[in-house]
Design brief:
The protein has 369 residues and is of the alpha/beta class. It has three domains: 3-106, no CATH class; 108-287, Rossmann fold (3-Layer(aba) Sandwich), CATH 3.40.50; 312-365, Orthogonal Bundle (Arc Repressor Mutant, subunit A). It is 43% helix and 13% strand. Helix 1 crosses helix 5, helix 6 packs parallel to helix 7 (154-162) and helix 9 crosses helix 10 (237-247). 42% of the residues are buried.
């Protein structure tokens, strides 16, 4: 696009009261944005209403357009993608409201690769993050681009796991593409911009507004062939993404967890409602009907390896802990150990990352491998 075309697309996307659905109607009626802005008030009102026509013909947001063009011009890996572009993702066109304009930073070609979303809880367990990272790494090695939302917890772990592979990862943002949110993931966002792709439909400078994130989730669901939920509470954005994916005909999968954990109940609900129960990377590849002959097919699995402990007492304690959360009193009853010595041994297991301390003075053994 030349500068005039870029300005017209930016102006359309920035017009107050003209969302993706209205923009699609206008583009269908008039053609490219330049033709929309050349149409008269009466013609525009027939499509967008009186208020929409007035907004379209009011030359606002000139500073925002200039900022966007400066942002584009300072880095060759930054670009705009519009509905008129030949490489606009076909899957996103299946949405009722595909964004007329996307801000991109990184490897634009990743949008043409088969993709899997890996999403889950921000307050993830250590085991959940390890699962997300391992599954993402293996599946990206099999050629799937991993899509997630750059949130803390499962999202960040999925991005990290995929980054070392050519298929890499796409982070779909609920803020402007120039905003690192959460701030703790700024370094991760920089790595994704260099090796993967950052994507947002929101104008530069858009802060983290709560109602933007469900709209972000529809892009995650729309851009992929399937969604894998690693950990999720019953009322969470991850379940919104999964339900949107199901409505779009995408495959929905979930990793089961402890019946005692609130952050796995959403996964259990999805499985009960028909999502594929996933125990290994092979399950994901089978559900997506992907031939994985060229990669190590099995990949990460939910099965636990045998303990590396050579001390019979430590092995006994790990067995007593198990893979479901257990409180200190129950563990003392199971083992016959006094609380003081028991707490000391649990601390050693925490340091060696064999055990994770959970809320409520509970403990859970971590799977290896």
């Amino acid at each position: 696009m030349d500068s005039a075309e870029q300005r017209a697309w930016l102006r359309l996307s920035l017009t107050e009261g003209v969302g993706p659905r209205a923009a699609l109607q206008l583009l269908s009626a008039f053609g490219l944005p330049g033709a929309i802005f050349e149409a008269g008030h009466a013609a525009l009102a027939r499509v967008a209403g009186e208020a929409g026509a007035s907004a379209l013909l009011t030359p606002e947001h000139l500073d925002a357009i200039d900022r966007a063009l400066v942002w584009l011009g300072t880095d060759a890996s930054r670009s705009l993608m519009t509905l008129a572009d030949a490489d606009y993702p076909a899957l996103l066109l299946e949405l009722a409201d595909p964004p007329p304009l996307l801000y991109l930073h990184g490897r634009r070609e990743l949008l043409r690769r088969p993709a899997l979303a890996i999403v889950g809880s921000r307050s993830a367990s250590r085991q959940g993050e390890a699962n997300a990272e391992a599954f993402a790494s293996h599946l990206a090695g099999c050629g799937l681009t991993i899509v997630s939302g750059l949130a803390r917890g499962i999202d960040a772990a999925a991005h990290r796991g995929a980054l070392d592979n050519d298929a890499a990862t796409i982070a779909v943002l609920g803020t402007g593409i120039d905003i690192a949110y959460p701030a703790s993931n700024r370094a991760l966002a920089d790595r994704i911009a260099e090796h993967g792709l950052l994507m947002s439909e929101y104008p530069l400078g858009t802060p983290a507004i709560p109602h933007n994130f469900p709209r972000r989730n529809r892009l995650i669901a729309g851009a992929v062939r399937g969604v894998l939920v690693v950990e999720a509470a019953l009322h969470s954005g991850s379940l919104i993404t999964a339900h949107l994916a199901a409505e779009l005909g995408r495959e929905v999968m979930a990793i089961p967890g402890s019946i005692h954990s609130t952050i796995t109940r959403g996964c259990h609900r999805l499985i009960r409602d028909g999502a594929r129960l996933v125990e290994s990377a092979r399950d994901v590849l089978e559900e997506l009907r992907i031939d994985a002959v060229e990669c190590a097919v099995q990949g990460p699995t939910m099965a636990a390896n045998s303990s590396d402990c050579t001390n019979p007492g430590d092995a006994m304690l790990l067995k007593a802990i198990g893979y479901d959360p257990v409180d200190l009193d129950t563990l003392a009853q199971r083992t016959g150990l006094a609380p003081g010595p028991l707490s000391a041994r649990l601390l050693q297991f925490e340091l060696t990352q064999d055990v994770e301390r959970l809320a409520g003075n509970c403990y859970q053994r971590l799977r290896r491998g």
